[in-house]
Design a protein that fits this description.
This protein is of the alpha/beta class. 34% of the residues lie in helices and 18% in strands. α1 crosses α13, α4 packs across α23 and α10 packs across α11.
Amino acid sequence: MTAGVAVVGMGIAVPGAGDPDELWKLLRGGRPVFGEPADRYPLDAFWSADPAAEDRCYTRTSGFLHDFRPHPVLAGEIAAGVHDEADRTALWLRHCLLQARTDVAVRATDRYAYYVGTSSLIGDRAERAVLAEAVAGRHTDPKAADRLRSLVYGGGPPRDTLPDRIARSAASGLLPADCEFAVVDAACSSSLYTIGLGVLGLLDGSCDLAVCGGVSAVTPRYNVTFAKLRGLSPGEDVRVFDERADGTLFSDGAGVVVLKLLERAVEDGDPVLGVLLGFGGSSDGRGTAIYAPNPVGQSRCLERARRAAGVSADDVDWVLAHGTGTSVGDAVELRTLAGATGAGGVWCGSNKSLLGHSAWSSGVVSVIEALTALWEGAIPAQARFTSFGASAPYADRVRVPVTDVPWPEDRRRARVVGVSAFGFGGTNGHLLIADRAEVPTSRPVPDADPVVVLAWTAHLPGDPGPGEVARWLRGGVLPGPRTFGDRYPAPPFPDVRLPPPTVRATDAGQLMALRVTALFGAEHGELWDPVRATTGVVAAASGPQPSASDNLVRCHAAELDALLEGADRAAFAEYVAGLRAVTPPTTKDTLPGILPNVVAARIANRYDLGGVTMLVDSGFTAVHVAARQLAHGELDMALVLGVSANSRPEFARFMGLGDVAEGAFLLALARESVARAHGLVPLTRLGSAWQRAPRRAPVAGETFAAADGVLAVLRALHADAAETSVGPADGEPGPVITLRRQTRSSR
C-alpha cells in the first residue's frame, strides 16, 4: 500500500467517553469504567460466585454505556420519536457516524463504501428475539405464541435485530442507501478488518469515501461463555501486561472512522487526523486450540503491515496492543512484539485496563486512541500497570509507560504507531498509522491479473456425488432431503481432528465447513498446499445458528422461568428439561463452538492456512470481498464458503424466509498467475463489481439463506453462456459477480 489514505473523521461511544476528547481525558487519568448491568438484565439470573456453576458467570461487572449522551442531531431525532423501536447498538453507531462526518467535505458525485464490524447477534435485543421464537414457536395457538413473543421480546420484526439491518438503520439518511456495504465478523479484529477493506476500495477507485467501524454490546450469555474459558478477571480488575493480570472484562463500544485518499483530503481541506501506511491481516493457522493465541500468526500480520507500508521495525514508535489482561494472551503478544522490534525497543500500551474489551469494536476504538495521541503529542501512561514481573523475557525490548510520554511532532521523521487487534479463532490484524506522509502522485491499482475459479464442492443431505449436484445446479431437482435431520451427524475424525466433547459443543455450521473442505480435498486435492500462508477463507452465514440458540436458552433459563407464569412456565420447564438432555452445559468448548466467525477459522486451523479469515452476511459479498483481496495481492488463494446450517421453523420465522435447506458450498479462487505458476487449470475468470443487479429469472426451490449467493455463482458456473452475471434480487444494489469463460485466444 502506498501511504495515500487519510483519516478525515472519527466518532466514538464507549463507557465514560462520548467523543475523542472525552476518551483522551479518560485515558489520561480516568478510573476504570466497570459496573453492574442495572436495568440491562437481571444479574442474579446469570451470576454465581462458583466458577463451576452450570451456565453461570462468576463476575458481576462489565463496561456498560449507561452514560450514553447522543449527538445533538440524534438527541433531536430521539425526542421526536424517530427511533422508538431502535436497538441501542444502532443508536451508538449512528452517534458515531454523525460525529465522524462533521468536518468532512463531500461532493454530490461521491461514491461511498460502508463497512461495519460486529457479530451476528450484537446485543440483548437480538438475543431476546431468538429467545422469543424459541419459547413461542412451540405453541400451536397463534394468539398464545404472539403473547409470549411480546412478553419476551417486544415489538418489531426479529430480522431487524440482525447486524445488516442495524448497520443500515444507523446510517439511514446519512449515507446513500445504495453504497457498497458489508458486515464483517472476524471477532475482536472485525473493525480493524473493515478499515483494511476501506483502504482497498479507495486504492482501486471503487469508492471516494470509506466509512469503517464497529459496534459491540455486552450480553449476559457472552459473559457466561467466556467465563467458562476462565478468561474473565475474578477480581474484576483488568491489569493489562501486569504481573497480577488475571483476566479481562467486556464493554459496550462503537467507533467509526472516515477515510479518503490523502490527495483528495488535502484538496478538499479536510482535517487529516492521520495517514494509514499499511494493513496486515493473517490467520493463526494450526495451533494447540482454536482459542489459543499463536505467535506465528501474530508475527505474520506485523510483517505484512510493515511490508505494505514500506517501514521497518525501527520506524515504529508505539504499538497500541490488543492487550486484554489475560495472562496467557498478553504474554504471547509481548513475546511476539519483542521479537519484531527495532534495536531501540518500542513503547507498548493498551486501553482495556480502563475501557474494558469492546470486542468487535475494539480495533477501531484503539485506532481512535492512536489518532488522538498523534494529535495531542503524547503516549498515555498504561493504567493499572506496575511491573511485568522479574522473569519476563521481553522487558528489555518492550517498554510500557508508567507515566505519559511526550511524543511531539518531529520535522525529521514521521511519528508512527501500530494498532493490533487479535480475534478469537486466530484472526489477526495490524494497522500502521503516521502523522504525515508525502502526497502520492499516483495510487496503486491491481495488476491486470484476473481472478479465476479453480474448483468447487458441495455438501448436501444424502451425500449426493458431484455429478448429481452438477445436474441439480443446471436446473434439476434437489438430489436428496432438504435437511440433515434434527442433529447434524458428526463428520469423520480425519475431517475435523477434534475430540468428541468439542464436536458435541460445536455448531453444525462449523462442522459442515470442515466436512465440505474435506470433500473438496478428496475430489480436487489440497490446491492451497503451495500457498498455505497466503490462502484465506471468506465465509457467508447469517442469523442465529442451532447450537448458539440452544445455548442461549440454557443461559437464560432462570430469567425466563421468573418471567413466565402458570401454564406457560410449566411448558417452558418441560421444554428446557428436554433441551438440557440433548444440549451440553456451557463449557470451555462452547464459545469457540458457537461464535459465527469461527466457521471460517475452523478451515484455516484444520489446514494451517495463514491468510485472512472472516465471515460476512451474504454469499455474494463473500465472493466480492475474496475477489478484491486476491486482486490487491492480499491473498494468493481464497476459499469462499457459503453455509446454511439451520432449517428450524423458528429460524425461518426469525429471518423472514420460507423453507430453509441445509448445505455447504465451497469455491476456490486465485489470481490467474498463481494458478499458472502451480499448474492449476482454471474453470473460468471471475469479475466483481458493486452495482444494480441484473434481471434474472427466480430460482425455484428452497433457500439456503446467506449461502444463496455462493450457490448462484455455482449455478452460473454451470450455465452454457460465455458470460453470466449474477447478483442480489432484481434492481437491488450489491455485488454483481460475472463469470467469463476463456476462449482459446484469451488464454
